[in-house]
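queue> holo job accepted (nickel (II) ion)
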Amino acid sequence: MALLKIVHYPEPVLLSVGKPVENFDENLKKLVDDMFETMYSAKGVGLAAPQVAVSNRLFVMDCSGGQDESEKIALINPEIIHVEGEQYGDEGCLSFPGLYQKVQRSLRAVVRAQDVDGNEFELDVEDLAARCVLHETDHCDGIVFLDRMTTLKRQLAKQKIKRLQKTGKWE
Ligand code: NI
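queue> job finished
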């Protein structure tokens, strides 16, 4: 396995719609393994392919932070098929290092996806896992959490990004 480089906003790949995954082959399995390793290493709970400069529709997640194998899930070609309720809370993103901002999301999400072998499955999640699924599926559509903020919060976030970029920690 290998650690992949996580790209930071405003890399164009983060703002592009990912292509559907068509080949469920060894290359896909390796990419997924590397994405898990990269996500755990960066202490994130989700990582989408565009964040490692691969413009395809897939992401990995583990809201247990490696504590519970059943929460380690790869979702290929995810599609949100149902949402319900709402939650409002802090959100971060590995492509926005050091930036946390309140974002409104649905409380519950049902997502249909394929596993690394191409088998279709559905995942019905709430709370943090729903926030994660919605955030990462957005990445597959070229949408970043900045786009989900209110206008005021987005302006504040952009100012903070400019300050962080000046520190050199954001490239
Ligand atoms: Ni993100």
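queue> The mean pLDDT is 96.
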